């Protein structure tokens, strides 16, 4: 690895260190909180960034201080040749950490290669341990394959973080069973407030299960939580529990309590840059790449976007045009 490049800071003093890179907008599940049952209108393949274009952008971001890349989707493993792409990303000077967010359905056969390539952390989307509720939430009966992936990742020594979206009337009975996984396994189970990125699958959401209520509910069943010192840029408030090997995390994704230390960008599968999950997209990177922009021009545009960020998710939401206030599917913006 080369000597680290100077870190770029935004207009609120937050460093640029992390990019979430969506490699596809396609998914093999149909989670109702993410998209309608019939799915969403996927981008034509030609409109998605090529792997070569993604590598170019990541290389330029590394020059601005990015050290971590998380591959997301859609479901990353739906896209062909993902593992060779990970290998090429790992060779980019300055990139020190490559991780994945996956639903686990297609992941297990690739685990040995992920280990070889140095992937240290996998976030596994898993909202319930009940097979019937899993099928109802995802509209697919794939829980056994997801659990096979979960245990295979642990056996391979990859750190696993389970991401569970908390949905009133859907899976709140699963919070305690999911958290109980931390008793005997070295896993972090993270509970996420539901967000409005459902692609029109249902109307505006309410969140009776805020981060405060999630913690109160879990402590009532599992005992007192001991806060773990939060790392800069972390989205989850993490807790240890007496007698548990693993930890519990709670992500206030709708309440947006963690914006003050946000150190990340998102690049959508079609090349849209988002400096906040709640913004409408601030830069068409694909147009720059395919319009013949030089590396210096692309780098300048990326830096300018990062230096003109909203202070938090609420400001970013207020800045969205009125016609875009019905939020897109999480599948299109990279989880």
CATH topology: TIM Barrel
Write down the secondary-structure element order.
EHEHEHEHHEHEHEEEEEEHHHH
How large is the radius of gyration? 19 Å
Secondary-structure content class: alpha/beta
Which class in CATH terms?
Alpha Beta
Counting H and I runs of at least 4 residues, what is the number of helices?
11
Query: Strand portion, in percent?
Result: 15-25%
Strand arrangement, largest sheet?
A: 7-8-9-6-5-4-3-2-1-10-11-12
Distance between the termini: 28 Å
CATH architecture descriptor text: Alpha-Beta Barrel
Number of strands: 12
Fourth CATH level, the homologous superfamily? Aldolase class I
The residue fraction in helices comes out at 25-40%
Task: Give the overall form.
Answer: globular
InterPro entries: Aldolase_TIM (IPR013785), Elp3/MiaA/NifB-like_rSAM (IPR006638), MoaA (IPR013483), MoaA-like (IPR040064), MoaA_NifB_PqqE_Fe-S-bd_CS (IPR000385), MoaA_twitch (IPR010505), MoCo_biosynth_MoaA/MoaC (IPR050105), rSAM (IPR007197)
Cofactor: [4Fe-4S] cluster
GO biological process, one term: Mo-molybdopterin cofactor biosynthetic process
GO molecular function: 4 iron, 4 sulfur cluster binding; cyclic pyranopterin monophosphate synthase activity; GTP 3',8'-cyclase activity; GTP binding; metal ion binding; S-adenosyl-L-methionine binding
Describe the model.
Pfam families: Mob_synth_C, Radical_SAM. Pathway: Cofactor biosynthesis; molybdopterin biosynthesis. [4Fe-4S] cluster 2 binds at residues 259, 262, 276. The protein has 335 residues and is of the alpha/beta class. It has one domain (18-333): TIM Barrel (Alpha-Beta Barrel), CATH 3.20.20.70. The protein is 29% helix and 17% strand. The chain has helices at 51-63, 82-89, 111-116, 131-138, 143-155, 175-184, 211-222, 285-290, 295-306, 313-318, 330-333; strands at 18-22, 68-72, 97-102, 121-125, 159-166, 188-193, 226-227, 236-240, 247-251, 264-267, 272-274, 283-284. The chain has a twelve-stranded mixed β-sheet. Mean pLDDT is 91; it is low at 198-203.
């Amino acid at each position: 690895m080369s000597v680290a490049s100077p870190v770029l800071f935004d207009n609120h003093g937050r460093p640029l260190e992390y990019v979430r890179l969506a490699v596809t907008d396609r998914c093999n599940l149909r989670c109702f909180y993410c998209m309608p049952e019939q799915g969403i209108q996927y981008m034509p393949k030609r409109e998605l960034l090529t792997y070569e274009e993604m590598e170019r952008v990541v290389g330029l971001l590394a020059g601005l201080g990015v050290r971590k890349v998380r591959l997301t989707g859609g479901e990353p493993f739906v896209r062909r040749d993902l593992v060779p792409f990970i290998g090429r990303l790992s060779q980019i000077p300055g990139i020190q950490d490559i991780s994945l967010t996956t639903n686990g359905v297609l992941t297990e056969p690739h685990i040995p290669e992920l280990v070889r390539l140095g992937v240290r952390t996998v976030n596994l989307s898993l909202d319930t341990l009940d097979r019937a509720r899993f099928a109802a939430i995802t509209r697919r009966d794939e829980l056994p394959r997801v659990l096979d992936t979960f245990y295979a990742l642990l056996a391979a020594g990859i750190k696993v973080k389970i991401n569970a979206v908390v949905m009133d009337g859907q899976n709140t009975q699963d919070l305690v069973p999911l958290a109980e996984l931390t008793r005997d396994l070295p896993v972090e189970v993270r509970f996420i407030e539901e967000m409005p990125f459902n692609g029109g699958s249902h109307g505006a959401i309410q969140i009776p299960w805020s981060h405060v209520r999630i913690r109160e509910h879990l402590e009532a069943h599992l005992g007192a939580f001991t806060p773990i010192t939060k790392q800069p840029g972390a989205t989850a408030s993490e807790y240890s529990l007496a007698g548990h090997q693993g930890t519990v995390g709670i992500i206030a994704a709708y309440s947006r309590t963690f914006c003050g230390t946000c150190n990340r960008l998102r690049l959508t599968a079609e090349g849209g840059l988002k400096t906040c999950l709640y913004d409408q997209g601030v830069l068409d990177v694909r147009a720059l790449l395919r319009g013949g922009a030089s590396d210096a021009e692309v780098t300048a545009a990326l830096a300018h976007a990062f230096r003109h960020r909203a202070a938090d998710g609420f400001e970013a939401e207020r800045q969205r045009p009125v016609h875009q206030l019905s939020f897109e599917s999480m599948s299109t913006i990279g989880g």
